[in-house]
Amino acid sequence: MNAMHTLGPAVGILVASLSTAAAQNERQPTTTPPPPRVSQPRAEQAATVAALLDRMSNVRGYDIVNAATESVGSVQDLIIDRGSGRVEYVLMKSGGVLGIGGKTIAVPFARLSAPSLTERRFMTDITKEQAEQAAAFVPENWSDLRRDPWADRMHTKVARSDLTSSEKNDADTDPTATAIAAAMEEALGGEVVAVKREWSGRSEDVIVELRTNDGKVRDLQLGPSWWVMSQPSAPMRGDKVEAKVRVITKDGANPRYIVSNATVDGKTLVLRDSQFRPAWNVANGATTDDARRSDEPARAATSRLVLASEIIGAKAVALDKEGGDIEDAIMDVRSGTILALCVDPNDSTLGWGDTIRSVPWSATTFGADEKVHIDATQQMLTAAPEIPKDLNAQPTWVSSVYQTFGVPAPRLERSWDASSRDRTMKGDDSSWIAAALSGPTATFSGTASRPRNEAIGKSNAQIHVVTLTSGNRVEEVVIAPYEYASTNQLAPTQGEQIEVSGRIMTLDGRRYIVAQKITRAGRTTDIWSGDKPGWLKR
To answer: Are 396 and 441 within one domain?
Structure first.
């Protein structure tokens, strides 16, 4: 495998040119550990979707087409959140002839949708012209990524702009540090019962369920999964832990046990410095004195993002034994979630013969040592499910993988991210929305054609529009802003039979039906709620 090329939080992304978890209170021990809690959905707007699975080796090669079915590029690689396994960007190769020439640009996954596996392609609102005008993603020599001035320039220019205002505040001042500093310190020791990953705001945090030396069970909050689980001292089940925690109680809520530093099976895990600033902010350009004094300073600056191509082919380690390689990964192409890694054992070291097995993403960590570490007992390894030939033919297969390893299956969501919402909100939608509300109601069914994106009224956002034909009647139908339509799988395809209910709108001399409900394949979806469009709901 090539030397690892991690991606910092600053990336040259196309979006620039297109526009902790609460811990439970102290619990008495039980003979059987309580089941892991299901991760809570992120605070940002999202839509739960039905899984559509494919191998990552297939996804790297998907064609990317726009609403006019023009090919704007193909998937070269994926950029993944190291902790959650969520695909954040797709590296798209655009231009060139027969794979020669062209350039690579990074497209936010929120700008893509996957209609079906039979087509094996993503749809996007990106035009050929926008792809041609976008800046190239990285230097041609990937091995120079961390040393190239490009990374420094983009870190300063892009990383902060891609954060929400609250994230900027957390990264720069970390107001939580003040509360932690004022809290009571407590020393806790015990054994790790479970390592859980729970969403808090826009990040996934690691919560360690610790059975203390006095027999109690407490949930300890460590930090973001991408950082904590990439450390050489990342906690796993059965590890012995000695931790210094700060206990925060607010407004009568259950206390939160926030770990400042710990020893995990004899290895030091520094999470906050002497001023309680988080060590993971080193990766965002902050200074952390304890991290600088750490024996492994490079670990403190581990990148949140990593290329999928770096994970495939990595060595697999379980029970402190190295005995296989990561052969592939299973991805839900609708939500952009890596659900499982496919492990080729090579030999019987891991105890599961020579059959390729599946391991849930949340039971693995991809560390700075370029290896995938599996948090599992020998019993879990030997019971690891085989990978079916048809991934979508067995709906219960994914859940069985997660049950085998004792971790909760993730909630599959397509996130309509804050930047997409902002692009829509900044465009003046009020003109055409007001015009739609004043029009008469209408219901129309027919055959969809010419799916496209265009500006309507004074809006700067790209609105998805489709032509609907039934006999001699032809209507132009407004669906929703493209990001919202794509995220919620509302965009009709060429030749599809649909029915829409909404209001007739005449704007700038053109007649439209503004769809407030849409029925596709017998399933009706509300696009509006009363007089409020779904994309403007908070």
So the answer is: no
DSSP state of 119: T
- Residue 201 belongs to domain spanning: 169-300
Tell me the CATH number at 327: 2.30.30.240
Q: What confidence tens digit (pLDDT) does each residue in 102-158 have?
A: 788 888 888 888 766 677 889 887 778 887 777 676 544 333 333 333 333 333 333
Please state, in angstroms and rounded to a whole number, the distance separating the CA atoms of residues 355 and 337: 24
CA 241 to chain centre: 29
Q: Give domain status of residue 268, yes or no.
A: yes
Distance of CA 382 to the CA centre of its chain: 29
Indicate if 430 and 403 belong to the same structural domain.
Answer: no
Please identify, among 241, 270, 300, the residue that sits at the C-terminal boundary of a domain.
300
Same domain, 436 and 514: yes
Alpha-carbon span 507 to 509, nearest angstrom: 5
Structural element, H or E, at residue 423: helix 418-426
Give the residue ranges of the chain where pLDDT is below 70.
1-50, 95-101, 115-117, 135, 137-177, 200-202, 251-253, 282-302, 320, 346-353, 413-430, 458-461, 483, 487, 537-538
Question: Who contacts 40 (Cβ-Cβ below 8 Å, separation ≥6)?
Answer: 21, 198, 199
Tokens of 214: 């006095």
- 236 and 357 housed in the same domain: no
The answer to whether residues 338 and 450 belong to one domain is no
Domain count, the chain: 3
DSSP sequence for 40-94? PPPSS-EEE----EEEHHHHTT-EEEETT--EEEEEEEEEEETTT-BEEEEEEEE
Non-local CB neighbours of 6 within 8 Å, separated by 6+ positions: 82, 146, 302, 303, 305, 306, 307, 310, 368
**CA nearest to 478, candidates 521, 429, 414, 410:** 429
Of 22, 20, 51, which is closest to residue 409 (Cα–Cα)?
51
pLDDT 10s digits, 429-459: 567 888 889 899 999 999 999 888 787 876 6
d(CA 28, CA 429): 54
In this structure, the dihedral spanned by the alpha carbons of residues 353, 357, 362 and 366, taken in order and rounded to 10 degrees, is: 70
Closest alpha carbon to 518 in 503, 531, 501: 501
